[in-house]
């Protein structure tokens, strides 16, 4: 009873007693993660270079692949899970993702809007975006 | 399969003592969590550099564009090096967990070599760009490029130094609880750098060569 450990440190595999029994070994987890990450990386490079896909959708496709690979890294390398011993780690991660999204999306939206609203054509006024 | 586990979590763990009843968390959990918070703040800093790069990516001021500068082959090799070193870093964590000193040193050596190979390729790329007049002072695009990619490179450099220091500590102090906690932080740091690199090669190198 005194040994009840409720939280897992980030990076540690889950220490919940019930999960432990049929959990795959650490070596297998890392190897699955590596294989998936290599697959997604290869797919990213293929998507960026192929002429088979609609050009307009490639940026979005690359973003989706990057998000997927980030998930693979978090789950298989950093051992972030949805278990109750990981609640604190996931909440901190969610807050980090929120701030990152606000900074990146906010900057892009504001700067695109600013450029659109420059009056006399982009060449003259858009000094920051000089090509 | 994991869904099924998640569904009956509620009933199963209510029987256990709650977090407050279990008493204060172990030092390993507290240290790991603190370092996790630091890593997230570090990633927020990277997000600002990413935002700057994304805004300035087309501001080439008549200078060379990403399409002319980036070599996808060397980026693919760099990505492979970093991914493989993340994997061997994971193997090192396992060797530490089972107290195998030889395997720990071996995994650390491979991790270091792959990280150093990544850094060497990146520096070669930087030197090549500066040699043809595409240095950070050429355009806003290149300033933001060197800031973003260089910041990641500095993190990798710091990680390599940290790894050497940790191996010296393992050799001198052995795998004490303190050293083990520091190694946990190192592996978190190293895996987080790989996540940043995933976004780097996607946003900078792959999206940079799209028309």
Commentary on this structure:
The complex is a heterodimer of chains A (131) and B (211). By secondary structure, chain A is an all-alpha fold. Chain A has one domain (17-129). Chain A is 65% helix and 0% strand. Chain A contains five helices and no strands. Chain A starts with 16 loop residues before the first helix and ends in a 6-residue tail after the last helix. Chain B is an all-alpha fold and 211 residues long. Chain B contains eight helices and no strands. Chains A and B meet through helix 2, helix 3 and helix 4 of A and helix 1, helix 2, helix 3, helix 5 and helix 8 of B.
Q: What's the arrangement of secondary structure elements?
A:
The complex is a heterodimer of chains A (131) and B (211).
Chain A: H1 17-22, H2 26-49, H3 58-77, H4 87-116, H5 121-125
Helix pairs in contact in A: 2-3
Chain B: H1 2-7, H2 9-14, H3 27-56, H4 66-69, H5 72-97, H6 101-131, H7 140-173, H8 177-208
The largest sheet of chain B is:
none
Order of helices and strands of chain B: HHHHHHHH
Which consecutive residue ranges of chain A, at least 5 long each, have pLDDT under 50? none
How would you sum up the global shape of chain B? Answer: elongated
Estimate the mean pLDDT confidence of chain B.
Answer: 89
Helix content of chain B: over 70%
What is the share of helical residues of chain A? Answer: 55-70%
- Total DSSP E strands of chain B: 0
The proportion of strand residues of chain B reads under 5%
The fraction of residues in strands of chain A falls at under 5%
Number of strands of chain A: 0
Q: Structural class of the secondary structure composition of chain A?
A: mainly alpha
Number of helices of chain A: 5
Distance between the termini of chain B: 42 Å
Overall body shape of chain A: flat
Mean pLDDT over all positions of chain A: 83
Q: What's the CATH H-level superfamily name of chain B?
A: Cytochrome c oxidase, subunit III, four-helix bundle
Estimated structural class of chain B: mainly alpha
Domain tally of chain A = 1
Multimerization status: heterodimer
């Amino acid at each position: 009873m005194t040994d009840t450990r409720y939280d897992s440190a980030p990076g540690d595999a889950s220490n919940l007693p019930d999960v432990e029994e049929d959990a795959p070994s650490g070596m297998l987890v890392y190897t699955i993660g590596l294989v998936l990450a290599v697959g997604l990386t290869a797919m990213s490079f293929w998507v960026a270079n192929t002429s088979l896909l609609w050009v307009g959708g490639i940026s979005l496709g690359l973003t989706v692949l990057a998000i997927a690979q980030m998930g693979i890294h978090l789950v298989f390398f950093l051992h972030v899970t949805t278990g109750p011993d990981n609640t604190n780690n996931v909440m901190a991660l969610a807050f980090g993702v929120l701030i990152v999204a606000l900074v990146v999306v906010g900057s892009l939206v504001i700067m695109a809007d600013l450029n659109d609203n420059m009056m006399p054509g982009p060449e003259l006024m858009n000094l920051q975006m000089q090509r | 399969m994991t869904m099924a586990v998640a569904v009956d979590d509620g009933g199963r763990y209510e029987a256990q003592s709650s977090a407050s009843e279990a008493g204060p968390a172990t030092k390993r959990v507290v240290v790991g969590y603190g370092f996790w918070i630091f890593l997230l703040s570090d990633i927020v800093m990277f997000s600002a550099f990413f935002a700057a790069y994304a805004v300035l990516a087309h501001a080439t001021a008549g200078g060379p564009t990403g399409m002319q500068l980036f070599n996808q082959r060397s980026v693919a090799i760099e990505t492979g090096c970093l991914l493989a070193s993340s994997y061997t870093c994971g193997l090192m964590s396992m060797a530490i967990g089972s107290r195998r000193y030889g395997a720990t040193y071996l995994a650390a050596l491979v991790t270091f070599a792959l990280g150093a190979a990544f850094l060497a390729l990146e520096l070669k790329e930087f030197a090549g760009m500066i040699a043809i007049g595409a240095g950070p002072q050429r355009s806003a695009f290149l300033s933001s490029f060197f800031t973003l990619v260089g910041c990641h490179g500095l993190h990798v450099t710091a990680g390599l130094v940290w790894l050497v220091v940790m191996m010296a500590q393992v050799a001198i102090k052995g795998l004490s609880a303190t050293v083990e906690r520091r190694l946990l932080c190192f592996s978190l740091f190293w895996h987080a750098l790989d996540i940043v690199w995933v976004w780097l090669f996607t946003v900078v190198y792959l999206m940079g060569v799209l028309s």
